[in-house]
Amino acid sequence: MNVLVIGGAGYIGSHAVLELCENGHDVTVFDNLSSGHLLNVDSRAEFIQGDILKNDDLNNVFNGKFEAVFHFAALKAAGESMLEPGKYATSNITGTINILNKMLENNMKYFIFSSTAAVYGMPEYLPVDEKHPINPINFYGYTKLAIENLLHWYSNLKGIRFGALRYFNAAGYDIQGRIKGLEKNPANLLPVVMESAIGIRDTMDIYGDDYNTPDGTGIRDYIHVNDLAIAHVRALNYIVENQENLTLNLATGKGYSVLEVIKNIQEIIGKKINCKIIDRRPGDPAELIAVSNLANEKLNWECKYSDINAILQSMWNVYSKE
Ligand SMILES: NC(=O)c1ccc[n+]([C@@H]2O[C@H](COP(=O)([O-])OP(=O)(O)OC[C@H]3O[C@@H](n4cnc5c(N)ncnc54)[C@H](O)[C@@H]3O)[C@@H](O)[C@H]2O)c1
Fold first, then answer.
1. Which one of 121, 148, 218, 236 is at 20 to 30 Å from 198 when CA atoms are compared?
2. Sheet containing 161-167: which strands, arranged edge to edge?
3. Ligand 1 atom 7: residue of nearest CA
4. What percentage of the chain has pLDDT greater than the value 90?
C-alpha cells in the first residue's frame, strides 16, 4: 500500500517506517523535524518536511496517492502538558483533526494512531487490560483520549477505519542497528539512564524509593520498538482485511523497577551510573504493567525483542557510539 507516515523521522515512527518498507509498502514520511532526525528515515522512503498545523504543508503532501496514514507526530511530555495545555491541545488534538479532515478530502480510510497507557490514569488493578476504566490524570493522556473518541465519530460518520494502539514504555533501538539518531530531550527512564552512561548527564534522578514495591522504586513495562513496529503493520493489515477498528494495548505484561533497570545497564556497560533519590512525582503509580491479549488474538502478535537486557543492549549499541 501507499502509506503516509506522519512523524516518521521520530523515535517510534522511524522504526515503523523500516517495518513498512520490509513488508513491501511504499512509504512517504512527513515530519517537521522538531524532535525527529532525517538520518532516521530509511532511504527507501520519500521524505517531505512539513507541519500538521500548516494547511499548505498538508495540501502539499496529501496528493491523492495514499491509502493509509500512520500518525506518530505529537508532543508527549506528561509533565509539560500540565503546564502548557494549550500547546498540547493544538499540537495533538488540532493536528490530528487536520490530518483526519485531509484524509476525508482525499477519500482515504485507514488510520493507525499512537495512543498511550496514559489514557488509563492510575491503575485500579494490574495488569491493565483494555477493559480497565479510562481516566487520564494528565493533559497529555487526555489529548490522546480525545483523539480516540474523535476516531469513533469519524468512523461512524465517515467510514474511517482505525487502529488506536496504546503503548506502554517504548524502549530499545532497532535490533539491526539501522536507527542512529538519539531521542531529543528524553524524559523517560531508559534514555535518561543511557545519557548518564555516556556522560551527557552527571547524575540522574530517581523519583522516590518508598513505593510499595520490592525495592521501593517504580515498576514499569518496557516494550521494544521493533515489537511496536511489527504490531503497527499487522494492525494495518487487520483493519483493511476485516474492515473493523482496533483499540488495543501493546505491552509485555512484565515489569522492572528503576533500580533493576540501572543494575542491568551497569552490568552491560561495566560502570556505575550516578543516581540521586528525590521526591516522588505527582501522579506516578507504584507499578504499571499491562497485558496485550487483544493484540495476541487479533494480530497474532507477541513480543519477540522485549527482553529487558536485549532492550538495554540495543540502546547501548547506539548510545555508546555517541
Ligand atoms: N515514546 C513512548 O514511550 C510513547 C509511549 C506512548 C505513546 N507514544 C506516542 O507515540 C508517538 C511517537 O512518539 P516518539 O517517542 O516516537 O516521539 P518523537 O518525538 O521521537 O516523534 C514524534 C515525531 O513527530 C514529529 N512532529 C512533532 N510535531 C509535529 C508537527 N506539528 N508536524 C509534523 N511533525 C511533527 C517530530 O519531529 C518527531 O519526528 C507520539 O504520538 C507519542 O505520544 C510514545
1. 218
2. 46-49, 26-31, 2-6, 68-71, 110-116, 161-167, 246-250
3. 116
4. 98
